[in-house]
Design a protein that fits this description.
alpha+beta; 4 domains; six-stranded mixed β-barrel
Length: 800
């Protein structure tokens, strides 16, 4: 065995406390680093498995409205697919795609809830989804064809008691397609986890109007095109953009005439490569997506934790180096080269790094279930690239071992040989490198603590601020899969229960999707207005405040009466009494019968938009959600009643029941996940920093044992000795707080700009973080300081 390795092992065992502290901090950092590396590389791998991925693009557009707002979207008219193939020679294939979300599929008198998507024949030639059975060249060319995935096929095989191949030619139906039979013509392998397009079944566009969709001025589908592969991408993009603008010229002219757009150039199409759609800021409702900035932030957090752990490593290595000055001095005098001295440190630090890595892998495995709850997507083991991980790990180990070895060697190299041999070096006071690393560690820790407190404070502000309506004691039933007659039967039966105070049908539950249209002002200008389709029970069920006019009545539910919010009135410029006034939208004239106080139907990230309540759901039409306000003390008996009623009226269909206040709070799930991620990072950072400070205190106390003994013999009290040992460490933490505060203030302000409604960046957030960091630091160093201060001075001086 190499002499350096044997020496390193002996030295590690000789300095057990130092070794345990180093390995403990570094192993936690390795666990975090592995988690973050696997997650980030996975998120950047989306859609890479497609053979034609480099030649496939998604069409998007940007609209700059006359009011200054800029919207970017990927929703377009599905007819554009054929137009692009006809008008742009470089477009080899093109397909429209949209999701119908979860739909009730019926097969041999049994119902399944599956993700249904709608597309065109070119889809199977452009994308590399593996075909198990069927001819992909013929898929979806007939209007009643259906292509399914292997997972769904296995479910159908269980129901039909047949083999997968036997499913070809069998029929299924969907509730919202009028029980139209669809013939299974193909079976695909399961969709890869790193595909932005996720589905269980695919049907052609003939029946797409049967399924609800978000309302958009320019369409409801995404358009993908594939180039020939040997053309100039920029030139092709310019031609595609020109065709899209020409296609929408009529719409653009209408918007200009209503002064919604200043000129035609305010509508600009642009392309996004397939590989970039998952992490692009222009996100499609029909694709899985993530935020590229969040991945960079997560990577930065992992890097910060690693820096803190390596700072510990370097500080403790430096401390051990000062204990070995005599030995190093003798080696230099005997002719040892700097490389051999470096080899001694490198061997020891590499062994410690490998040990920490092994423990880090164990921590990673234990922490993986928790990480699944923190991140938007879990880490899929099937997507792990083993060679890339091995190279990453080897690179990290060598980099850490090198960086933690070179600094002690350089430090000793700058010291005079006579000092090296005389052992007159001391750790702690006056050591600039040590002070630098302690300040860096605690500065980063304080930064994370401040950000954690800020994020939690903002989340609580959004959750508990008055939304303008009451979401407590309301149950949300998702009923979009029911027929109108089933919706009405369910409503009437539930209304018979006295424990249900109010019940309403509506097309939105504020959790996803939106519908908007243009309301024309008297001067011809245009106001983008959100539409909520409701009934006459909507306002009392939600507890909305009607400040003018009256609510809908059963006598005017079928009329053109509407209720608007304050924001719409302000944008329309109707300062006088608006009751009885008319407004125009999509060629229809509506009469205002009431005004409600502004309320937050979107999250706090968005400003309240103009809103119109339209009576459309009284007969079940568009009634996708049923909101029930109940007596809270009767909930235990009410839930079985709802389930039994559902089973009697809609047997065989799954009940989707949620408590509305919990759902609305889930709108901030992303922010809560980030608060937990940053919180965990802060805890890990402070633990690692405290471990380093503990080890540094231990080394400092050991090097000042004689000084402490002399001071005590001369009458120094325990408190005075503790103050002497603690003051330098406290000073470093205070300096770290001063350095971290402006950085945290800047980052916090930038983050809060994402919210239309936000809390203040109060002084107490910074003060609390500073007190926590200082208190933890004092607890860490005071234990060793107290032990040193209470030690018998005779023991310290016995061998001097």
């Amino acid at each position: 065995m190499n002499k350096n390795v044997l020496y390193a092992l002996r030295n590690i065992l000789r300095n057990k406390a130092n070794s345990v502290i180093t390995v403990a901090g570094l192993s936690v950092a390795f666990a975090c680093l592995i988690l973050i590396f696997l997650y980030v590389t996975q998120e950047f791998s989306y859609n890479n498995f497609h053979v034609n991925a480099n030649n496939i693009f998604r069409v998007n557009y940007s609209v700059k409205w006359a009011n200054g707002n800029v919207n970017e979207s990927a929703l377009l008219n599905p007819e554009l697919s054929q137009v692009l193939k006809d008008k742009v020679p470089q477009v080899k294939r093109c397909t429209a795609f949209r999701s119908a979300q979860k739909q009730t599929m019926s097969f041999e008198h049994q119902n399944l809830e599956e993700t249904l998507c709608i597309t065109e024949p070119d889809f199977f030639k452009m994308f590399s989804f593996k075909v198990l059975y069927g001819n992909p060249d013929q898929f979806l060319k007939s209007p009643n064809e259906l292509v399914i995935t292997k997972n769904l096929a296995n479910k159908l095989c269980t129901i039909g008691k047949c083999g997968i191949e036997d499913l070809l030619g069998k029929t299924v139906s969907f509730m919202n397609s009028g029980d139209q039979p669809f013939v299974i013509s193909g079976i695909l392998d399961n969709v890869p986890k790193n595909s932005t397009l996720q589905f269980s079944a695919l049907i052609p566009y003939k029946y797409e109007r049967n399924f609800s969709t978000s309302n958009n001025y320019f369409g409801n589908s995404t358009i993908f095109y594939q180039t020939n592969g040997n053309n100039n991408i920029t030139n092709t993009e310019a031609q595609v953009s020109s065709v899209v603008k020409t296609y929408y010229q009529g719409m653009i002219d209408v918007l200009e005439s209503h002064k919604a757009l200043t000129d035609a150039d305010d509508f600009q199409p642009f392309m996004i490569a397939l590989k970039d759609t998952h992490l692009n800021k222009v996100q499609s409702d029909y694709e899985t997506n993530n935020n590229k900035a969040s991945l960079y932030i997560l990577s930065a957090i992992g890097l910060l934790i690693l820096i803190i752990a390596c700072s510990n490593f370097i500080m403790l290595s430096l401390g051990q180096a000062f204990k070995k000055v005599g030995e190093v001095g003798i080696r230099y005098m005997l002719g040892a080269r700097r490389t051999s001295i470096f080899g001694i440190f490198f061997s020891e630090n590499l062994i410690l790094s490998i040990t920490a890595f092994v423990l880090g892998v164990i921590i990673f495995v234990l922490f993986l279930p928790t990480f699944k709850n923190l991140a938007p997507n879990e880490i899929y083991t099937s997507l792990i690239n083993i060679p890339r991980v091995v190279l990453f790990v080897i690179g990290c180990l060598l980099l850490i071992a090198f960086s933690t070895s070179i600094i002690p060697v350089l430090k000793l190299n700058n010291i005079q040989p006579n000092l090296l041999s005389s052992k007159k070096l001391k750790l702690g006071k006056g050591n600039g490198i040590t002070q630098l690393f302690v300040t860096l560690q605690y500065g980063l820790s304080i930064l994370l603590i401040i950000l954690t407190i800020l994020v939690v404070h903002q989340i609580n502000y959004m959750k508990y601020k008055n939304l303008g309506f009451s979401s407590k004691n309301i149950i949300d039933l998702r009923i979009f899969q029911l027929t109108n007659s089933e919706k009405l039967a369910l409503r009437d039966r539930l209304n018979s229960n006295p424990d249900i105070i109010n019940l309403t049908l509506t097309d939105r539950d504020y959790m996803g999707g939106r519908s908007s249209d243009a309301v024309i002002k008297d001067n011809g200008d245009w106001v983008d207005t959100r539409i909520l389709n409701v009934d006459n029970n909507y306002i009392p069920t939600l507890g909305l405040k009607l400040i003018r006019g009256e609510n809908f009545r059963e006598s005017n539910l079928n009329s053109k009466s509407v209720i608007v919010n304050e924001k719409l009135l302000a944008d329309l410029g109707k300062k006088e009494d608006p009751i009885g006034n008319t407004i125009r939208m999509s060629g229809t004239v509506y009469q205002i019968i009431g005004v409600v106080k502004n309320f937050h139907y979107d999250s706090m990230e968005d400003e309240i938009m103009p809103l119109m309540l339209r009576p459309k759901t009284y007969n079940g039409e568009r009634g996708n959600f049923m909101l029930l306000r109940y007596q809270p003390q009767q909930l235990a008996s009410l839930l079985p009643f709802i389930r039994n009623t559902w089973e009697k009226i809609i047997p065989g269909k799954e009940l989707d029941l949620n408590f509305w206040d919990e759902q609305l709070n889930n709108r901030y799930q992303s922010e809560e996940q980030w608060s937990q991620i940053i919180g965990y990072a802060a805890i890990i950072a402070i633990i690692i920093s405290s471990l380093g400070l503990f080890g540094l205190t231990l080394l400092t106390v050991n090097t000042r044992t004689k000084e402490i003994g002399i001071r005590k013999i001369n009458g120094a009290k325990i408190g005075e000795v503790m103050a002497m040992l603690n003051k330098d460490f406290v000073k470093w933490v205070v300096i770290a707080f001063i350095m971290a505060t402006p950085m945290a203030y800047y980052v916090g302000r930038k983050w809060l700009q994402n919210f239309a409604y936000k809390t203040d960046l109060s002084w107490w957030i910074f003060a609390l973080a500073g007190i926590l960091a200082l208190g933890i630091a004092l607890l860490t160093v005071s234990w060793q300081s107290w032990k040193a201060a209470t030690r018998n001075p005779v023991e310290a001086l016995r061998y001097e």
